[in-house]
Amino acid sequence: MPHKGGGVSAFREKSRQASVAFQETLWLALDTLRAHKLRSFLTLLGVILAVFTLVIVMSVVEGLNVYVAEKIANLGAGVFGIDRFGVITSFEEFLKARKRPPLRMEDYEALQEHMELAERVAALAFTRQDVRYGNEVVEEVLITGTTASYAHMRNFNAGLGRYLSEADDEHRVPVCFVGPDLVVRFFPYVDPLGKTLRVGPQVYEIIGVGKPLGSVLGQSQDNYVHIPLGTFRKTFFRGDDSVRIFVQARGKEFIEAAKDEARMILRGRRHLRYNDPDNFAIVGSETFTNLWESISGNIFRIAVGLTSVFLVVGGIVIMNIMLASVTERTREIGIRKSLGARRRHIVMQFLVESAIMAATGGLAGILLAAGTGLLVTTTTSFPIVTPLRAVIIALTLSTSVGLFFGIYPAVRASRLDPIEALRAEV
Q1: Per-residue pLDDT tens digits for 87-131
Q2: Rounded to an integer, what distance in angstroms lies between the CA atom of residue 227 and that of residue 168?
Q3: Minimal CA–CA distance to 82: which of 231, 264, 254, 224?
Q4: What is the DSSP code string of 242-276?
Q5: Per-domain residue ranges for the chain?
Q6: Which of 148, 210, 307, 409 has a beta carbon 3.0–4.6 Å from 54's, enabling a disulfide?
Q7: How many CA atoms lie within 13 A of 385 on its CB side?
């Protein structure tokens, strides 16, 4: 039993000595860095740039993940779109898509009539026109011809008045539902309901104003005019124009089945054989999400490449500076070794110094990236979110670089002969 107690005491004593030795080494390393501030900063520049690049890219991608999910890929609960082109990612795809036949109103009506898994079906068409009120004009406003059910899918809530109705579409009534931007421009101090706007060659009566939607990628979502699709087709449609169809499934669990149902109906209408590819595109939220994941993956790979280059450069600079430090501090090393410091103590001192130097650069890069992200978010309302994993990865990488590139200088310092080291500066 006494033997066991002695073993525990010895272990505690060794632990205490190791802790004291590490603290002493840590303070020596910090004193050295403080004594050479400019040199330390220039040494750390590569690490700072590496960590800044990595953290800012991860922060931008993280913010864009949220942005894409909420603003771009959010078609609505259980909603998917059907369109002539779909998401085009290359010129070759565009050329192929141009050869597809347009989606007609008859396609929309067939889906509306025959789909059993659809809660709602809506059709849309788009153009851009100048909008006028008196002598005022707003150029290139997005004009959407749509059916009444579209508002329920995309949550187009009226701030004033009402949205378009089925009767408006059926009778091609010249009425419109407008975005808040146009109201601010044309009717800042008066009630806009009942007023008329000229859109292209036609005059439309305002029956409703939408609630503010904000902006996406810096583009306002409140500068629009919605008119009944029947009225739109009469005024703006050309022979080869295509409509875009939106389908809302009866529930999220029916989305894939509803897509298959819509696909079968359209393929049947277009007389496609079983081995013919679709000559239309079905687009869901996952289409945009997958596209963004592909883009963000490429961005991240480029960032990793740049970060690797900066880290290697920064590591080489750290190694050279540490070698120079060994030469400058030869006498100090000799004194420490003559007073009983062992090789492992010298190695530990220089490794800790190198690691602290690199970690300090990593911390500076993280703070710089976080500050840049905060500035961008504050001035542009674009979300840049610095994830915790980016901070952990950055600190781990920078410290590891310091340790790796500090090994050679540390070993070289530990191998100095104390007598020769003391003579070096005599």
Answers
A1: 766 777 777 777 888 888 889 889 988 989 988 899 999 899 999
A2: 9
A3: 264
A4: --EEEEEESSGGGHHHHHHHHHHHHHHHTT--TTS
A5: 21-69+291-424, 79-283
A6: 307
A7: 11
